[in-house]
Design a protein that fits this description.
Chain lengths: 179, 455
């Protein structure tokens, strides 16, 4: 947990300039927050991490050529001790699962109120996770997809009957009638 | 050999008899027998020689005294008779042998024809394709079981019926009407079964002339199911593409809404517009727009399946090959013989490669020599396919995959869609800077191999 008197240093990574600038002003004006930098791409973000104390990374997922996954992977290799909040306009179920597996503390959707973002940052700094219901649904959906299993292709009894009928030269209609 | 021995024994016996019998009996005519026998086995020259020997023996042992004026004509007659009978038998036997051989040949040909007809009959009867022949008036002469099944006619009932009630377009074949030269072609037309149900018929037919007029032989396949499948597949891909596009628009709108919301929040905190109704309305409008753009349809993509890359590339080459050759593009395909299976949606993957190759064709249009190379490489988890052209390359590669960007080169949405499709099955598409031309890398996730997985 961060000491209350110490400001939370934030690194904002988003390729959308207008959003980045607006959010920078909003967070700069917020007490207890200090902006360590705002950058548009993964290489710039990697540069900003060196020689810079960062407590929370606000990371967009879609970053042009690269995605937030690339930066999360970098942070993992660097054993980053801070927290990462994904701030995105939307992600696939699988990507939602992957960012959480790579250590993101939460996912904040851009259609939420900006004041909620301030709450989300404080929550994750306190060690909690931030997930709205949509992200939770996405996590459940992605986790329920069966993993790749090398199961041989087998046919059911009915499929075998259909196959036999096809080999017997029956038309679709005849097969349908027979089934 | 045995017949030759018999011939010579007979000649010796006749010669001895002719020598011993002193009466005025002309036994020389008996030499006709060995000559006839020899005709079955000796050649013409050998027969002439033997006839000369027999003539000499007959002349030597007959009871006539040698007198040149009578002996020479007599010997000529002897020789002619002996040689003639020998040659006659020889020719008769040769002709008989020829006839036998010819007969055997005919029998063999008839047998072969019977077997071919039988095989053809089995082939036609067991064929799943409807096959029939008609006369010049369109009356069915013969039809197989598949034709009966296709047109829903009881077995044997199709013969004699006019085909125009089932396949009206066939009656418009000019060669059938005017007795012109035969021709063969394929056409797609509307067919109708006996119960009135319509179907799409693919008809391969040929006309031919016979002594009783022109005839038509046709093979018909019901392609209605193919049409249905194709249309459903097109709809599926249209919807999938639309979902990705609408998802992209929604995503971009949400990004802008997020930015506006942040700016709105900043202005609200400054209290400069605290009681401004328009400012409040702006906030409400942004919320409404966010709600409209809240649909993320990109979630609804089809689950990927295992795709065999080698067979996929064969199919791709069939699709793009003629177009490349038409545009004088030298294409080279460098891939291993047994590439691993990958996760993908086959149709979407085809769209991605078609988009890349069409872009390369456009980019190389101004080049004098056009080269396209498709190469694969494999690592433990991925297969990388490079699509490399020798076009002028790209000025703003960073804008390539951005949707709705004015500076996007080549096509606006194609690459964005292609990347979205690739990412939907755990792959990726990226541009690799190169000193010459353009290089696009298609990344595919390697699938677990399953025995006998032939897709």
């Amino acid at each position: 947990m961060m000491p209350t008197e110490q400001k939370i240093r934030l690194l904002l990574i988003d390729d959308h300039g207008l959003f980045r600038e607006g959010l920078s002003r909003l967070l700069d004006a917020e007490s207890g927050f200090e902006l360590a930098g705002n950058v548009a791409s993964v290489p710039e973000a990697i540069g900003a991490m060196y020689g810079n104390q960062v407590d929370v990374v606000l990371l967009d997922f879609d970053l042009g050529e690269q995605t937030g996954l690339d930066f999360l992977t970098f942070l993992r290799t660097q054993r980053f001790a801070g927290r990462v909040l994904i701030v995105t306009a939307g992600m696939s179920n699988l990507d939602t699962l992957r960012v959480m597996e790579l250590g993101a503390a939460g996912i904040f959707l851009k259609d939420r109120s900006p004041s909620d973002l301030v709450i989300a940052i404080r929550k994750i700094v306190e060690g909690e996770a931030w997930l709205d219901s949509g992200s939770l649904d996405a996590l459940v959906a992605a986790a329920s997809v069966p993993k790749e299993v090398a199961t041989p292709v087998t046919l059911t009894a009915k499929e075998r009957d259909v196959l036999r009928a096809v080999f017997a030269g029956l038309t679709n209609k005849e097969i349908g009638t027979r089934m | 050999m045995a017949s030759l021995v018999r011939v010579f024994l007979l000649i010796v016996v006749i010669a001895i008899a002719d020598w011993r019998v002193n009466a005025n009996v002309p036994l020389g005519l008996l030499y006709l027998l060995p000559m006839a026998l020899a005709g079955t086995s000796l050649t013409r020259f050998q027969l002439a020689m033997l006839a000369a020997i027999c003539t000499a023996l007959a002349e030597a042992f007959d009871s006539f005294a040698w007198a040149t004026p009578t002996a020479i004509p007599r010997d000529i007659l002897y020789f002619s008779a002996f040689c003639g009978i020998g040659l006659f038998v020889h020719e008769a036997r040769a002709n008989r042998l020829k006839s036998v051989l010819h007969l055997r040949e005919l029998e063999k040909e008839m047998q072969a024809r019977r077997e071919a007809e039988e095989q053809l009959k089995i082939l036609v009867e067991s064929s799943p394709i409807a096959i029939f022949t008609t006369d010049a008036h369109g009356r069915v002469l013969i039809a197989n079981d598949a034709a009966n099944r296709l047109l829903l006619v009881e077995p044997g009932q199709l013969q004699g019926q006019k085909i125009d009630s089932y396949l009206p377009s066939l009656m418009k074949v000019p060669a059938l009407q005017g007795g012109q030269l035969s021709f063969r072609t394929v056409m797609q037309c509307r067919g109708q079964r006996r119960d009135g149900e319509a179907f799409i018929a693919e008809v391969w037919f040929s006309t031919y002339l016979t002594s009783v007029g022109p005839r038509l032989a046709a093979m018909v396949v019901d392609t209605s199911q193919d049409l249905r499948d194709r249309e459903e597949e097109n709809l599926h891909h249209l919807l999938a593409g639309s979902r990705i596009l609408v998802g992209a628009v929604s995503h971009e709108v949400r990004n802008v809404c997020g930015a506006i919301a942040v700016v709105h929040e900043n202005l609200a905190r400054s209290r400069a517009l605290e009681s401004n109704k328009d400012f409040e309305a702006l906030g409400t409008l942004v919320l409404a727009l966010e709600r409209i753009a809240s649909l993320d349809l990109r979630q609804a993509v089809e689950p990927p399946v295992r795709v065999h890359l080698n067979s996929f590339f064969e199919e791709l080459r069939i699709v793009v090959g003629p177009g490349l050759h038409e545009k004088n593009v030298e294409d080279s395909w460098e891939s291993e013989a047994n590439l691993p299976m990958v996760w993908a949606d086959r149709q979407s993957l085809m769209q991605v490669f078609l988009n890349l190759i069409r872009n390369s064709e456009t980019a190389m249009a101004a080049q004098t020599t056009r080269r396209l190379r498709v190469a694969t490489s494999v690592d433990s988890g991925h297969i990388f396919v490079s699509v490399i052209d020798n076009g002028p390359g790209l000025d703003h590669p960073e804008l390539l995959f951005r949707p709705f960007h004015q500076k996007s080169q080549r096509v606006g949405l194609g690459l964005y869609l292609s990347r979205a499709l690739m990412r939907s099955f755990r792959g990726d598409l990226r541009y690799q800077p190169s000193s010459e031309g353009a290089v696009f890398i298609v990344q595919l996730a390697r699938a677990i191999e399953v025995p006998n997985d032939a897709y």
